[in-house]
Amino acid sequence: MDPLLIVFAGVLLLAVLLSSLAHRTILSTAALFLVAGFVLGDGALGVVSLAPDDELVGTLAELALFAVLFTDGMRVGWQDLRTAWRLPGRALGWGLPLTLVITALGAHYVVGLGWVESLLIGAILAPTDPVFAAALVGNEKVPPRLRQLLNVESGVNDGLALPFVMVFLAVAAGSDNLHLGDLGLELGLGVLIGVVVPWLAIKVEQTRWFSASTQYEPLNALAIGLLVLALGKATHGNLFLAAFAAGITVATFGQRQRESFEHFGELIAELLKLAALLVFGALISLPLLGSVGWQGWVFAVLALIAARPIAIWISFLGAGLTVREQAAVAWFGPKGFASVVYGLIVLASGISTAQGVFQLVAVTIVLSILLHSSTDIVVARWFDDEREVPAWYGAARRLRDRTRGQSGQNPTAPAPRPAEPDR
């Protein structure tokens, strides 16, 4: 624990010092933690020694995904979904299941996995991560509908993919462990806790007997989240669906709680995410990356450049997006944090194919983090109108204006018309 804490603190300090540079270049904070984990883990220097079945790995993954799903849900209250559902609805209603199916086809026919394991991999890799599209979403020259589409989709698809992951994992565990009734109860109980607890807490605060001070207001949503987590564990409800439902409920009924918690909550979720990425990197080794064979690497490439683009192209037929917008949406389907944690959950599940599934997921995520985190700035600049003008044209125009200014002409005035000949 001590070496891991020292490593995390050191890498976190480095990430903070480089954060300004990362916003302007292809440098990625997520990639920094992933690479640091890989270099300092057992696969290289051995400073951080972790095994997939270590309690720390499971606990950290659980807490990080809970925090991420809670904050993701808080970004998309029902009002937000109603006002901005047309394009995100296509991406989630058609794009997500199509991506799952196409990815599963690749895992089955390229790698040769069984259908259940292939569908499990498809569900794990279907969600997208907004971290790697930050430059695109934050660029005001990118059309608002495109930024809204990527924001809403990435905020919702983690929670939508989760039931598929749990069902396929239960099926992969075998008939002896498959109890769909119990699984349905677990998922339903998680949603119930995620809706009822925040709703009651917000309604109680709105009475005349209670009121949170400005100092403690950001802790309101945190307390709600912790209560949902504790009740989910005590009742064996699904923690992740509870977290996602709780975030949506707070965003829907507690606008003040949502606004006060937003920045504070994102910092907590970001800390846990980065810690989980460091652990994930420490579990990756060169033998693991090589053990998937050329078929595994072909699958990883196809999962990134074929599955998502094909699914998005089909989903947005007739939607009115420009070619540039559709290309940006198709490319920025990065496999990020939710896929990392779902992969760790499978690895700790004990199913016979856990190691093989995790290896394919790990290779795809590593490739995605490296590719998407290094291209978000480039793709965002596609939408910069000034960059659409060729450099030679701008230089020629400045030279022409300078020449006209020196000759006493108004550079913005139209050129004088030639005198008409006498008739």
UniProtKB/TrEMBL annotation:
In terms of InterPro entries, this protein maps to: Cation/H_exchanger_TM, Na+/solute_symporter_sf
Report the superkingdom from the record: Bacteria
- One MF annotation (Gene Ontology) recorded for this entry: antiporter activity
Q: Give the matching Pfam families.
A: Na_H_Exchanger
Answer whether the UniProt record assigns the keyword Ion transport to this protein.
yes
Question: Which residue ranges does UniProt annotate as crossing the membrane?
Answer: 32-51, 63-79, 91-111, 118-139, 159-176, 183-202, 222-250, 271-290, 296-317, 329-351, 357-379
Spans annotated as Disordered: 400-423
Q: Does the keyword Oxidoreductase apply?
A: no
Q: Which portions of the chain have biased composition (kind: Pro residues)?
A: 413-423
Question: GO CC annotations?
Answer: plasma membrane
Start and end of every Cation/H+ exchanger transmembrane domain? 14-375
Topology in the lipid bilayer: Multi-pass membrane protein
Query: Where is it localised?
Result: Cell membrane
Keywords attached to this Swiss-Prot or TrEMBL record, sorted alphabetically, are:
Antiport, Cell membrane, Ion transport, Membrane, Transmembrane, Transmembrane helix, Transport
Q: Which GO terms describe its biological process?
A: proton transmembrane transport
- The name this protein goes by in its record: NhaP-type Na+/H+ or K+/H+ antiporter
